[in-house]
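Figure 2 data, in text form.
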Amino acid sequence: MFEDSSLFVLIAAFAGITLLFIFLYFVPVNLWITAQFSNVRVGIGELIGMRIRKVPPSLIVNAMITATKAGLQLTTNDLETHFLAGGNVPAVIRALISADKANITLSFKQATAIDLAGRDVFEAVQISVNPKVINTPNVAAVAADGIQLVAKARVTVRANIAQLVGGAGEETILARVGEGIVTSIGSAATHKSVLENPDKISKLVLQRGLDAGTAFEILSIDIADIDVGANIGAKLQIDQASADLKGAEAKAEERRAMAVALEQEMIGIAMTNASALVAPTYSAEKLLGTNPIAVAIPAGEEAPFVADFATTTAANGKLEIAQRNNTTIPFGWAQDADGNATQDANILKNGGALLPLGSEKEQGSHKGYALGSIVDIFSAVLSGASFGPWAPPFPAYVPMPENMPGEGLGHFIGAMRIDAFRPAADFKSNMDLWLNRFRNATPASGHEQVYVAGDIERTMEKERMQKGIPLVGAVQNDLKALAEKMNLSFELKQ
C-alpha cells in the first residue's frame, strides 16, 4: 500500500512538472513581464498565438523592445507578418534605427521590401551614411596609337535607398565603369596623353551616368593605377607582316618550281590554296581562297609563256592598295556580307568576300569558281592539307578556323617532260611561232601592243630594277613606324 502511494506521488510530480513546462512554453510569463516593464504592450494571448503560429515570441518581443526604446512606432503584427514572409526582423529594426539616427528617410514598408528582395538592408543604410569603395579589376584597353594600357580604378558609391528594390548591384557598376575606361582610353590619340592626365578618364566616365538604374549613387571614380601593357598595334603589324611573308614565300616557291621546270625544258605547273576570302557563285559565305594558278612553258628564241594569276576577279593585294590610298574599288571585285555588290575596299574586314573570276554568273563567275575549286582540290584535298573554309588564314584579321580537316595549306607542283610527247626542239620552235604570232597581232584601237602572259611582268621587272619600287604614302608610313618600333634604320631613296 505504501509503495503504491509513493509511485502515485512520483507520477503526479512528474506530470505536474511536465504541465508546468508546457504552460511556460505556451505562456512565456517572464517575456510578458519584461515587455510590460519596457512599455511594450503585448498580451498573454498574443504570445500564445505566436507559439501556435510558430513565431518565436522572444524574437518579436525583443525587436519590439528595441524599436520602442528607439522611438519607432511599430506593432507586433507588423513584425510577425515580416517574419512569416521570410524576413530578417532584427536586421530591419537595426536598419530603421540607423536610418532614423542619420536622418535618412526609410519607412518600415521600404525596409521590409528591401530585406525580402534579398539585400542586406542594414548594410545598405550603413553605405548610405559611410560610402563604400569598390575596386575594379584590371581593365585593359588600347589607345589609338596601338599601345595597351592596364588601368585599375576605385569607385566610391553610396546606397540609393529608393533603388534598392529592383536596382542593379555592384557587378553592373563595375561592368559599366570598365566599359567607360575602355572607351575613354580607346578614344585617346596616344597612350601618353592618358598617362599624363589619368584624371581625364575619371571625368569622362563620370559624365556617362553609369549609376542609372542601379542601387548605388557613384560619388567619384579615381584611377588608382595605370600601367603600359603590350604594343598591340606593333603586334598586329608584325602578325600581318608575317602573314604577308608566308603568302610571298608560297608565291616564290611557285615561281622557283616553274623556273626549275623551264631550265629542264619542261612545262611547270604550280597551284596553292589560300584562306577563305572568296564567295562561290550565288554564295554569301566565304569558302575558297584566291587560289592562284601558275603555268610556265619554255620556248626557243622567244621569251617563255608564264601565266601567274589568282582565280578571283581581283587579288586581295589590290584591295590593300585601295585601302592604303583611301580609294574605292570597282564594282565586280567584291560583295558585302549579304552578297550585295560593293565598292568598299575594307569590305573583307567587315564580313564581305572577294568574287571569283568573272564577278557574276552572267559574266562567267561560275568558271572562276570552278578554277578556284580545282586549285583547292588539287592543292589541299589531294595533299591532305586543310581546304575550303578550313584553310588557315593569311590575313591577321581572319580568325583561325575550328576543326580543320588537314594540316596547313597545300600546294600542287608538277613538271611535264616535253620530250615525252615530242622532240623538245620541235616543240620550242612551234612555241616561238605561237608566241611571235600573238605578240604581233594587230592591236585594238587605243592600244599599242598585244601581250602574252608574262610580258608585262618582265617589262615591269626591268623598270623596277632600274628605278626602284614605288610605294604609296601609307605603306611608307607603315614601314617607317615599324622600323622605329623595331629599332631599325629606315631610309627611302627617291
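Caption note: The radius of gyration is 42 Å.
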